[in-house]
Amino acid sequence: MAERGKTKFQVDLRRHLREKAVDRNLTRLICEIAEASKYIINSIRTGDLGVAGTSNLYGEQQLQLDVLADRILEKRLKYSGVVASVVSEESGDILRFTPEQEGPSYSVAYDPLDGSSLVDVNLAVGTIISIYEGDNLLQKGRNQVAAMYILYGPRTTLMYSTGEGVHEFAMNQLMEYSLVQENVRIDGGSGIYSPGGQRNLYTAGTEAFVRSLEERGYKLRYSGGFVPDINQVLIKGKGVFLYPHLQNRPQGKLRLLYELNPMAFLVEQAGGAASNGRGPILDVEPENIDDCSPIFIGCKEDVARAEALIATLD
Ligand code: FBP
């Protein structure tokens, strides 16, 4: 097992997947997404920051960057030959493809550029990916066979899991992803908290939870980007992120298929927990591709405390 920053030899992503005996088609898919991220980085660095003049399935105005990142991924997924269907937060339609490779095919739900409105202020953003075997995208997150994200910050980080731990890669000077750390763990301990949503709209349970964190001396760390905020919990191995149910928004803001399921899969694989305030996110049966849910995600003990206070006070 490689310790963070102490990898003796560079292990690239493809080799790592091969060593973990990940299915050949799934390996191909994950590597295609990693390739696509290189073009997304380029568009973030140099692309136009203007609006595209279109809106996504939530009625939000799309930036040109959102549309570009979406197209880059969609094309790569389509031509990978192993993808049966895709749905993106930006397109809002399930697209069906004909997989050409023999063996298992996969379906992918993705957020091509989460937090894109942060690009103009030069904060970190990311791509989030959820993968199922077969062609059904409307099933509970527990059935995912893999999840990953790519974080575009001062460095580029790729985090993936195929259900056997979570592994961290960094982009090197050759623009290849090389292994930084295997089996990332969230071990708990006093931590950090990232509270999304307007506080004066919190319910009594969430307000009591956040107050309990503050009384314990947790440090506030909220970037406004889901990918960097979750990456922080995973890399520091502690803390909790929440975007709760609000008095005027009972389902919160974040999206089950594109954001919450993949992050819940990664965080559970690292020994943490992810809850909608009442139970595990991964057990929620989605009804529609645009479902949203409250989220409390990170260290197990923190998530359990949130659930207990919500059960008592909400
Ligand atoms: P977008 O998909 O519109 O970019 O929203 C997602 C997101 O930016 C997350 O990355 C982040 O955690 C959250 O919204 C921040 O929301 P808020 O601006 O309400 O704090």
Helices, strands, pairings?
Elements: H1 13-19, H2 24-46, E1 51-55, E2 61-63, H3 64-79, E3 83-88, E4 95-96, E5 106-114, E6 125-133, E7 146-152, E8 156-161, E9 167-171, E10 177-181, E11 192-195, H4 204-215, E12 219-220, H5 226-236, E13 240-243, H6 256-269, E14 273-275, E15 295-298, H7 300-313
Parallel strand pairs: 3-5, 11-12, 11-13
Antiparallel strand pairs: 1-2, 3-4, 5-6, 6-7, 7-8, 8-9, 9-10, 13-15, 14-15
Helix pairs in contact: 1-2, 2-3, 4-7
The structure holds 1,6-di-O-phosphono-beta-D-fructofuranose.
The site of 1,6-di-O-phosphono-beta-D-fructofuranose has 10 residues, from loops.
Describe the structure in your own words.
This protein has 314 residues and is of the alpha+beta class. It has 2 domains: 13-181, Fructose-1,6-Bisphosphatase, Chain A, domain 1, CATH 3.30.540; 192-313, D-Maltodextrin-Binding Protein, domain 2, CATH 3.40.190.80. The chain has 7 helices and 15 strands. The strands form 3 sheets. It has an 8-stranded mixed sheet, sandwiched between helices. Strands 12-11-13-15-14 form a 5-stranded mixed sheet, with helices on both faces. It has a two-stranded antiparallel sheet with strand order 1-2. The protein is globular. The chain starts with 12 loop residues before the first helix and ends with a helix. The structure holds 1,6-di-O-phosphono-beta-D-fructofuranose. Residues 60, 114-117, 196, 224-226, 253 line the site of 1,6-di-O-phosphono-beta-D-fructofuranose.
